[in-house]
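Let us walk through a complete example step by step. Step one is to write down the protein sequence. Step two is to encode the small molecule, S-adenosylmethionine, as a SMILES string so that its atoms and bonds are unambiguous. Step three, shown after the inputs, is the structure prediction itself.
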Amino acid sequence: MAVTEETLVHTRNSHVAAISRTIHVIIFNIPLKRRVYGLILQADMTVVPYKDKQGSKKQQVASMFDNISGKYDFLNHFLSLGIDILWRKKAIRQLKKDHPKQILDIATGTGDFAIEALALNPDKVTGVDISEGMLAVGREKMKRKGMDDRIELLSGDSEALQFEDNKFDAVIVSFGVRNFENLEKGLADMQRVIRPGGKVVILEFSKPKSFPFKQLYNFYFKWVLPKIGNTISKDQAAYTYLPESVRQFPDGESFLQILEKVGFKNTQCKPLTLGISSIYIGTK
Ligand SMILES: C[S@@+](CC[C@H](N)C(=O)[O-])C[C@H]1O[C@@H](n2cnc3c(N)ncnc32)[C@H](O)[C@@H]1O
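Step three: the predicted structure of the complex.
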């Protein structure tokens, strides 16, 4: 074949096109792959308090709460301007018509939710937690308030509860489920120990959605709260873990779907304070 000016131009053009295609692929596909890979990583990633330390999420969470137990109550009320107290009261009111006599408070910590549950006039509130430090502060508080005959605080793991099936009229959890290592396992075991017809009431942080409150709140939650919390608690990770764990945690409809998956019926979500927290309710 004779090499004409026309074929030379054509060959040069197809080389240029091939090179430009390669550059296009490099520029656009690599970041895309990274994005997809990042999403896969994110889906697998468990948020733990101490990223540079060994140990399961459960071990890390227990040791984090042991560390901050002395300052936990103060920081809770200070950082939420006391609104956490109103949220707990409102969550407990969801059980008013049920008159539960045996109540289990999971992830009871220093026992504030268990104390609020006394408003329902139960025979007994049992609280369980994996942090001995939080339980010690809680037991001291119950003694001081003369409530230790009606509230019992025990060491216990939400994912392997030490109680028989169908024991409790109601199971309650405030700001605990987000910290579970295995959320579904924890919720399923809670469902197991509730009697048929009994209720679960869960209070947990959620994510505000409306502009501009969402932006203002996110600024406070991500930048201001960790600085104050970490300084006062003297734990460099606890109050950084808080917004990170909330960001990654399912809220609203997604959380209700998980409750239903483990067997709860008539599930409801009641957002509080423009969606900063939500109350979730389900029936066994
Ligand atoms: C943010 S505190 C909430 C304490 C209390 N309910 C309140 O409203 O103040 C979370 C608690 O969950 C506990 N926790 C985390 N995982 C748990 C598990 N698998 N079983 C029992 N308690 C758990 C922690 O030890 C911690 O005391």
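Step four is interpretation. Confidence is low (pLDDT under 50) at residues 1-44.
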